């Protein structure tokens, strides 16, 4: 008897219900990853994620080999590849993690159709990608929660299954060929400071985070220069770490920092349940407001300056340059940069979301689009009219200006918080750095007027 485990965004051995089920029920297991050219077609391919993915697949293969198995990698349409493997191995079951995006649902439908008549069945597992299955925590009368606080309350009261260990041994049918695991070295155009992927790396990071970071999280999570967040997002994005296990481990650590960290993981589940109920929100306004986002040559010029980290507002530019360099950005930076684009410049959130998806190693259709919508005021923010002032925010979250000096070398000569207002300094102290792109008050008024008319 054989079973197939189709890996997607769940590239791990620990706490993996599909793998556990397959190892239990079958003598032979095919751990399969399909490189799907469809991902490129829908524009979701990005160099940073391709490199991190290669790390994750390499590590998964190594972990499987230690247990007597190996990873089977194939290129092609997942439905066709799976059908062919069912034919050649006689597999009776195909296990896959349930996803919420339209893409993942479509893949599951196509898999089911491809298996028809083969005698094999598709088993979709919930709560592999999220801590709790989307749809498990619902308000009485509706299909999803549109507001975070009540969702968080109900989510926190739910029972979470105990994390599963990794299988000790498994056997892969020897006749199944693999196209080989991709390598990071073969990916071009990666951000120079990109983190290394893989389950082992993720587990080591989680362990050191529990030991050294989590207790200070509540105080440090908004401090841009302090860099006091877990940086686990790419491991969660690729499923090299299980969200449920992260919640368990954090709860076991205990304390205010752990509570605050678990709350952020709940945001991740929250956005998943919104998108699961409203898949169109990946591209369309969740709460349409009748926006007429600015377009035309001025708008294009401003969007380009924003992408390049040359808006003349140092904290926004620092965040955008961190993104380019690391393929990752601090959450406070993401909030500021997104608010600047959508509210101060009044440009369409989709422009910003697309640029983030080009670079973010944790770039995720669910979390990226839903957070962009939250900031733009078209999503689930209960105060959609709020505009973050980059100067006030900079003084609060980068009080000494260290984050800005780190990422904006042109301003390194300016000491202390004065770095946030370079336009007040003599020209020689800000050589090569642009003047502010817009006046903040003007931007804010334009957004408010547009809202009133909309
Ligand atoms: P920590 O502060 O250590 O938080 C722990 C984990 O909680 C994160 O790894 C993440 O999985 C989850 N989390 C934290 N905040 C959020 C949030 N607001 N929404 C959903 N999950 C959250 N996160 C992504 O994973 N992928 C994205 O594509 C993404 N795009 C974003 C775009 C914008 C405009 C904004 C404002 C936020 C975005 N986020 C995204 C959410 C958040 O910024 C990142 O998850 C976080 O910065 C990752 O760093 P960390 O792992 O150190 O987070």
From TrEMBL:
<keyword id="KW-0456">Lyase</keyword>
<dbReference type="InterPro" id="IPR014729">
    <property type="entry name" value="Rossmann-like_a/b/a_fold"/>
</dbReference>
<keyword id="KW-0157">Chromophore</keyword>
<dbReference type="InterPro" id="IPR036155">
    <property type="entry name" value="Crypto/Photolyase_N_sf"/>
</dbReference>
<dbReference type="GO" id="GO:0003904">
    <property type="term" value="F:deoxyribodipyrimidine photo-lyase activity"/>
</dbReference>
<keyword id="KW-0285">Flavoprotein</keyword>
<feature type="region of interest" description="Disordered">
    <location>
        <begin position="170"/>
        <end position="198"/>
    </location>
</feature>
<dbReference type="InterPro" id="IPR005101">
    <property type="entry name" value="Cryptochr/Photolyase_FAD-bd"/>
</dbReference>
<dbReference type="Pfam" id="PF03441">
    <property type="entry name" value="FAD_binding_7"/>
</dbReference>
<dbReference type="InterPro" id="IPR018394">
    <property type="entry name" value="DNA_photolyase_1_CS_C"/>
</dbReference>
<dbReference type="Pfam" id="PF00875">
    <property type="entry name" value="DNA_photolyase"/>
</dbReference>
<keyword id="KW-0274">FAD</keyword>
<dbReference type="InterPro" id="IPR006050">
    <property type="entry name" value="DNA_photolyase_N"/>
</dbReference>
<comment type="similarity">
    <text>Belongs to the DNA photolyase family.</text>
</comment>
<protein>
    <submittedName>
        <fullName>Deoxyribodipyrimidine photo-lyase</fullName>
        <ecNumber>4.1.99.3</ecNumber>
    </submittedName>
</protein>
<feature type="domain" description="Photolyase/cryptochrome alpha/beta">
    <location>
        <begin position="1"/>
        <end position="130"/>
    </location>
</feature>
<feature type="compositionally biased region" description="Basic and acidic residues">
    <location>
        <begin position="176"/>
        <end position="187"/>
    </location>
</feature>
<dbReference type="InterPro" id="IPR002081">
    <property type="entry name" value="Cryptochrome/DNA_photolyase_1"/>
</dbReference>
<dbReference type="InterPro" id="IPR036134">
    <property type="entry name" value="Crypto/Photolyase_FAD-like_sf"/>
</dbReference>
